[in-house]
Structure formats: structure tokens, C-alpha cells
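User: Please fill in residues for this 193-position structure.
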């Protein structure tokens, strides 16, 4: 599968293995360091060949640093997905052959009071990406829209442990909290995706 410019996108092949269209480099990834990295007006295409789905991140921006091409990476930026801008912050550890890479990612919505955070470890086992960690989605307390019955919109938070690969994920220790801590409604559970 190629994008509209004839390039091979990054993503998953039909068997769920990582398809990463980078050329083989003839040097040690640890030997290159980038003190300051600035990407402006970039584009990233992620594809899943098994079901034909694609995600295109337009107007990709990044400001940060790479201690080596194997990591760690630290920075922030934004991207546009389906016309909406999403600021983000990212931190990764150095990629280890046996331990994978730890990733902390926080994404905000510029148009809605909504945040998503992930703190996961990702590794590739026989070409298949696997991950394990925690995720959280939250809406802070805010002002209600004009004409609403209440003056404020209550906050909510959904958090979970997550474990999976390119084909399935298990959400364990799911906790949903609606409202402020002192009078919150709380639900707990588990789910398979």
C-alpha cells in the first residue's frame, strides 16, 4: 500500500507485523545525536494492511531533542487529524534490545477540554509490536455552554492498565470517575478489545 505521493507508510502488514519503510543504515544508531530537532509542517501516514485503515497526521510539528537515533527522545508539538489540532508531549527512553522502549505520551484537544495520556512499554517480538502500561482519558471541570441547565460541566476520568499487541488489547483495572473527588461516582471493571 502506498500513499498519494507514492511513499510506503509506516504501520502494520497483513500479519500484524511492523512495516517500517526506512532504509538500512550503515552506521551505529548510538553514534548520532541531535541536540535540537525541529520539525514543521510534516506529515505522517500510519497504515494497517490487514483492514486497509489509515491515519494521516498533517501539519506535524515537533520541538525537542534526540540523544541518539536509538533514543531517548523528549519534546512537544502538535498535529492535525481530520481537521482538528492536537498538541502533544512525548518522552521515550533509549530502545533496549530486550526491554523495549518506554513511552510517555500526552495528547490534548485544542477544541475540546479533553486529554489522553499513555505510559507504556513497547517492544517488538518476532516482528509483532507488543505493549503494556497504563492509559488515562480525562475531561477537566469547565464552564457549561450558554443555555445549559448548569453553570459548570463536571469533570470525569477514565484510567486503565493495558496490555496487548497489534491484534488485541486487554484493559485491566479500569476505573471511571465522574465528578469531583469529594462526591464522585466511581465504576471499576475489565474489558477485552
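Assistant: Residues filled in for all 193 positions:
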Amino acid at each position: 500500500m502506498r500513499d498519494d505521493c507514492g511513499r510506503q507508510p509506516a504501520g502494520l502488514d497483513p500479519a500484524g507485523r511492523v512495516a517500517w519503510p526506512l532504509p538500512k543504515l550503515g552506521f551505529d544508531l548510538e553514534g548520532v545525536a541531535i541536540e535540537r530537532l525541529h520539525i514543521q509542517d510534516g506529515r505522517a501516514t500510519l497504515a494497517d494492511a490487514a483492514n486497509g485503515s489509515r491515519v494521516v497526521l498533517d501539519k506535524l510539528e515537533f520541538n525537542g531533542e534526540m540523544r541518539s537515533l536509538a533514543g531517548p527522545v523528549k519534546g512537544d508539538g502538535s498535529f492535525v487529524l481530520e481537521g482538528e489540532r492536537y498538541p502533544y508531549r512525548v518522552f521515550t527512553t533509549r530502545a533496549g534490545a530486550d526491554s523495549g522502549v518506554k513511552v510517555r505520551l500526552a495528547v490534548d484537544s485544542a477544541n475540546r477540554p479533553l486529554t489522553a495520556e499513555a505510559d507504556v512499554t513497547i517492544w517488538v517480538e518476532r516482528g509483532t509490536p507488543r505493549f503494556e502500561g497504563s492509559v488515562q482519558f480525562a475531561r477537566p471541570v469547565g464552564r457549561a455552554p450558554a443555555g445549559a441547565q448548569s453553570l459548570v460541566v463536571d469533570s470525569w476520568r477514565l484510567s486503565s492498565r493495558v496490555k496487548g499487541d497489534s491484534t488485541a488489547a486487554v484493559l485491566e483495572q479500569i476505573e471511571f470517575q465522574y465528578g469531583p473527588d469529594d462526591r464522585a461516582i466511581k465504576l471499576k471493571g475489565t474489558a477485552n478489545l
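For context: The chain has a mean pLDDT of 83.
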